[in-house]
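INFO  loader      accepted 1 record
INFO  loader      residues=146
INFO  predictor   begin
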Amino acid sequence: MRLLFAIDLREAYEPLVAEAKRWAEALDATLDLVYVGVYSDLYQFISDPHVRTLMAAEAEALREEHIRILQELLSEVPENHRGDWHLPAGPPAQAIVEMEEPYDALMVATHGRTGVSHFWMGSVAERIVRTSTKPVIVLRMPSQHA
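INFO  predictor   done
INFO  writer      dumping tokens
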């Protein structure tokens, strides 16, 4: 069995990775990690060449940091459950669903937002659940008010 865990590196991801590892072990599955990065979009509308160069360098440094984090997190997965890491670009839900084919299930995290915050922020997890043809395991993000 293969699981693809979509992780948000901008959030408190450590407890979620621990939970994803528990799922992989319980299902005797290989666990792959994916983070959808946004790098070129950070500076595409800037016309000043000097500022564009600086922004491109910052975007590349951010990308390299994300790769380092994904590699580090994956190294903590027991070897018999360790898969690969992926860093695609694009709209997050779409990019993740486009990767679903070789996997038996997808894992995503949700904040569980409702009301106005859900309306404004949207939900990548919800879009994945609605558009994926694979089973989706939804993990609850740790509460920020704890």
